[in-house]
Amino acid sequence: MKKIILANPRGFCAGVDRAITIVETSLAKYGAPVYVRHEVVHNKYVVDGLQERGAIFIEEIKDVPEGSILIYSAHGVPLSVREEAMAKNLTMIFDATCPLVSKVHVEIKNLHKQNYTIIMIGHRGHPEVEGTMGQVKDHIHLVESEADVETLPLDRDIEKIAVVTQTTLSVDETKSIIARLKETFPNLRLPKNEDICYATQNRQDAVKEMAKSCDAVLVIGSKNSSNSNRLKELAENLGVKSYLIDFDYEIKSEWLDQVMNVGVTAGASAPEVLVEGVIKRLQQEGFNTTETLNVVEEHMTFALPSELR
Ligand code: SF4
């Protein structure tokens, strides 16, 4: 019998939920338009929906008219963006940066004050990486892979050196990069608590478990969603065919040839309504049984800014 296995947890995390609620509540309370710096979360369905309701997504602060309401995306912003926004005559600024990203910002600023050289593990060009690295003006280096460690222009016996990571990386890959850093720089200081967030960790754990019983895995998430890409890679690395899709209509029947068990998960920025669409589409392909694989229970929530409560 053809079966759908649903990973749990999947989909929205507390940081995404908070960021979307900040935009929705601002629109409800102050009316359209509200300006959002960068896609508030990396999901096409969510961003298109908010745009229809009056959110305007911009990349540059110069594109926000004076007197507007501005919201920073969940990925966080560099200090230069905050400074530029503060210098404008804006009515209100709301910060939808995930508190777990803000935690890394605080960590970086403290390390910098203590004269540490900081290594950030992350993906070049990702807004979270730009935001986090942009918390300090110098003495910070980006590493994307183990090979990058060798090219760092630093003495091996440097005394004050610390590492932080993007929150949505592959847990396993990050462990090997940190191990290589530790070998190269024996004085390396590790983060007190992991920077990879609970939601990334839990969704990866659930996919690992789910993939064991699947012939194919569908990951619902947008192409620019870091944590969704990691879920797809993880299933692939376990030898299971894996596809990243925004919508159910992208599923091709040939992907499901010879597939008896299809796994379904969703990145942290993908809403459950998209999962429901995928289940309906799979039912049309003869997958009439659905089973949920519960790996971890989540209870995390983050408070809204006081003006929006
Ligand atoms: S994926 Fe993690 S860091 Fe990103 S918004 Fe969600 S909880 Fe925050």
Written overview of the protein:
- By secondary structure, the protein is an alpha/beta fold.
- The protein has three domains: 3-12 and 197-294, 4-hydroxy-3-methylbut-2-enyl diphosphate reductase, catalytic domain (Cobalt-precorrin-4 Transmethylase, domain 1, 3-Layer(aba) Sandwich), CATH 3.40.1010.20; 14-99, Rossmann fold; 100-196, 4-hydroxy-3-methylbut-2-enyl diphosphate reductase, catalytic domain (Cobalt-precorrin-4 Transmethylase, domain 1, 3-Layer(aba) Sandwich).
- The protein is built from ten helices and 13 strands.
- It has helices at residues 14-30, 44-52, 79-86, 99-113, 127-133, 146-150, 171-184, 198-211, 226-237, 272-284, and strands at 3-8, 34-37, 55-58, 69-72, 92-95, 117-121, 140-143, 161-165, 188-189, 216-220, 241-245, 261-266, 289-294.
- The longest helix has 17 residues, at 14-30.
- The structure holds iron/sulfur cluster.
- Iron/sulfur cluster (SF4) is lined by residues 13-16, 74, 98, 100-101, 167-168, 197, 199-200, 227, 268.
Helices and strands in order:
Elements: E1 3-8, H1 14-30, E2 34-37, H2 44-52, E3 55-58, E4 69-72, H3 79-86, E5 92-95, H4 99-113, E6 117-121, H5 127-133, E7 140-143, H6 146-150, E8 161-165, H7 171-184, E9 188-189, H8 198-211, E10 216-220, H9 226-237, E11 241-245, E12 261-266, H10 272-284, E13 289-294
Parallel strand pairs: 1-12, 1-13, 2-3, 2-4, 4-5, 6-7, 6-8, 8-9, 10-11, 10-12
Helix pairs in contact: 4-5, 8-9
Bound molecules: iron/sulfur cluster.
Iron/sulfur cluster binds at residues 13-16, 74, 98, 100-101, 167-168, 197, 199-200, 227, 268.
